[in-house]
Specification:
Strand content: under 5%
Largest sheet: none
Oligomer: single chain
Number of helices: 11
Radius of gyration: 17 Å
Mean pLDDT: 90
Number of domains: 1
Structural class: mainly alpha
Number of strands: 0
């Protein structure tokens, strides 16, 4: 059974959540494109500030660097900030909040007037910090969709949708409790909403598949 109780941070724990948001809001891909190419990433390709669009402006090697940085800004809050700053809350619960708010920061970065990306890499970093097994199973889903139908956006949506299912299945074995289930479920909804344009294009038959030069993922 999944408990319906959702534990929220208290007191100074909200500082950890705020720090996580501010870290997650750092637009590494946008900064790299601006500094290295003089390009505003929000005006290139899909206009997304994430690693996928950064690779179009910077090339794949630097796109990988952007992905690693976006991944890290989700991993660090969930692996370090949350557990170390937990007081009243369980460390894992605060880690979920911190990882989630890092992803929220990527979606709505204060530094770019709240116009951000889709937070897939950032949330994946947080999930790895919480339980690598959840990420590995979800990653298999991503690969199956990417090399099957070939839609990057659909692969990301279904991967994150798999996270709460695996988290629920892993509750007893991992000892992580229900916070991870609720957190991954909430973020699956958020990431699906952030991909609503991709969903519309898929339904219209205009979303590019893997291997095409143009992509909005």
């Amino acid at each position: 059974m999944i408990s319906l109780a959702i534990v929220v941070p208290s007191g100074s724990e909200w500082i950890a959540v705020l720090i996580s948001y501010l870290l997650g809001a750092v637009p590494f891909g946008w900064l790299m494109a601006k500094v290295l190419r003089g390009v505003d990433l929000s005006q290139v390709g899909s206009g997304n500030i994430g690693a996928t669009n950064a690779s179009r402006a910077l090339g794949k090697p630097l796109g990988v660097v952007a992905f690693v940085l976006d991944f890290a800004k989700g991993f660090v809050p969930a692996a370090v900030i949350g557990p170390r700053m937990a007081e009243a809350s369980d460390p894992t619960t605060l880690a979920v909040w911190c990882g989630a708010f890092a992803a929220v920061g990527h979606c709505w970065p204060v530094y770019l007037r709240f116009r951000g990306g889709k937070a897939v890499a950032t949330w994946c970093g947080a999930v790895v910090a919480l339980d690598p097994v959840i990420f590995l199973v979800g990653g298999l889903v991503w690969l199956a969709v990417f090399f099957g139908p070939g839609f990057v956006g659909l692969a990301s949506i279904l991967m994150t949708a798999a996270f709460p299912v695996v988290a629920w299945w892993r509750q007893e074995a991992s000892g992580l409790g229900t916070a991870v289930v609720w957190g991954t479920a909430a973020m699956a909804v958020l990431i699906a909403v952030r991909h609503r344009a991709n969903i519309s294009r898929m339904l219209a038959g205009t979303e590019p598949r893997r291997g095409r030069k143009k992509s909005h993922a």
